[in-house]
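User: Design a sequence. Structure:
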């Protein structure tokens, strides 16, 4: 069951946060994708300003498949992705 928020609670959480993830945590959203998705939609739905949020760049773990492909080691990357070890 989704938590119902008044307009005030998400507005306060967004104003006090620098990222959407931080705002979601401040609201105590359930750690499920559905709960976080529900809260993620509130700023847009209610017109809450998020322009002060720090842009978040997606990060890949060091040594990830994408890094290996970008570094020109596709054979090893494909083997690791498939669960095999290439020498």
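Assistant: Done.
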């Amino acid at each position: 069951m989704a938590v119902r928020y008044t307009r005030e609670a998400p507005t306060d959480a967004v104003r006090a946060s620098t990222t959407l993830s931080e705002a979601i945590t401040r609201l105590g959203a359930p750690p499920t994708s559905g709960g976080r998705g529900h809260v993620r939609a509130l700023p847009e739905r209610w017109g809450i300003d998020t322009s002060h949020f720090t842009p978040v760049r997606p990060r890949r773990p060091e040594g990830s498949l994408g890094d290996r492909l970008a570094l020109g080691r596709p054979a090893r990357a494909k083997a690791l992705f498939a669960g095999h070890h290439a020498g």
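DSSP finds five helices and no strands in the chain. Residues 33-46 form the longest helix (14 residues).
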